[in-house]
Amino acid sequence: MWNVLLSFSGLVALIQLLFLPFFPESPPYLLLQKGDKAGCLKAMKQLWGEGNYHTEFDDMMKEKAVTKGTKIMNVLEVLKEPSVYPQLSIMLLLLLSLQLCGLKIFQTASLHESIIPYVSLGVAISELISIIFCSSIIDRFGRRILLWGGYLLMALILVLLETSLLLSDQFLWMRYCSVILIFLFIIAYGIGP
């Protein structure tokens, strides 16, 4: 039944695509990209209801003044920009090492082959829960605190993960701690970065 489970995300995407025309454009997009002040205010009222949004509008106008003259690049242009190569290489290295690290940990934990699909499903559910949790608290705490907190949690979890891997030969239960730490790492990543 994995094909049904995987097709579920396609169904959700199709529903989103069908309802997309009924939603207004993003107010920052309308103001910053299109320069449509009236459309921006109209979208803010449609999204947030009646109210006074002059503070938010003024913040967007300040952002527009700061970014004036800055060229907006597409993904291909960003990939061709030499100044972002160090950041891209670090990000790719981190993502690849995490993928290999997860495989090694699941092998070290000696999970039965029949359990691995459930572990993969658990990883996906952990990521979904963390994204939902993050979207509900981002307005309260702000992006900076979530980024710092997420990175600090990830660093702490990686230290604990390394410790559990070193002790996994002496204590068999440490192998399962490694798997749990992978789940916690994914949640910390979803909440922060």
Automatic annotation (TrEMBL):
It is a multi-pass membrane protein. One of its GO terms (biological process) is D-glucose import. Its main location: membrane. The chain crosses the membrane at residues 115-138, 144-161, 173-192. One of its GO terms (molecular function) is D-glucose transmembrane transporter activity. It is found in: Membrane. Residues 1-17 form the signal peptide. InterPro entries: GLUT (IPR045263), MFS_dom (IPR020846), MFS_sugar_transport-like (IPR005828), MFS_trans_sf (IPR036259). GO terms for cellular component: plasma membrane. This is Solute carrier family 2, facilitated glucose transporter member 9. Residues 1-193 form the Major facilitator superfamily (MFS) profile domain. The keyword Membrane applies. It comes from Pelecanus crispus. Pfam families: Sugar_tr (PF00083). Keywords: Membrane, Signal, Sugar transport, Transmembrane, Transmembrane helix, Transport. The keyword Transport applies.
